[in-house]
Amino acid sequence: MSNSIEKSIEIKASRSRVWKALTDHRQFGAWFGVDIDAPFAVGKVSSGKITIEGFTHVPWTSTIKAMEEPGYFAYTWHPYAVDPDVDYSDEPETLVEFWLEETGGQTSVRVRETGFDNLPPHRIADALRANTNGWGFQLENIKKHVES
What we know:
Layout: E1 4-11, H1 15-23, H2 25-32, E2 34-36, E3 45-50, E4 59-68, E5 72-77, E6 94-103, E7 106-114, H3 121-147
Antiparallel strand pairs: 1-7, 2-3, 3-4, 4-5, 5-6, 6-7
Helix pairs in contact: 1-2, 2-3
């Protein structure tokens, strides 16, 4: 079993437009399905609430690791931390990285999530499965958000 997820998508928009959708906390929230409390800042914790039906009980917490405009954005978080009766705060986090490359008026967005092998063994398979499906869904969401 692979301990990472990597997916990509082509978006018909400039890299600067996709960058804004990715790193502006309001736009990120609109396509990702989360109400984020404050702008993203490197080294700071981002918090809020998931707004996706069935997951509105889940808090959003991530730490912004890098914002290298216009091509690299990264944060850490607790993957698939959806059980309200579990405190995930002592678990290791995974690293989510985005790379943007523009060619001919289109932007390639690549996302990679790593670090699943550091999770408690009983959580690895579920987190990998959920986030593999989730990243496919979320890349389609950012594409729709940017292209509409």
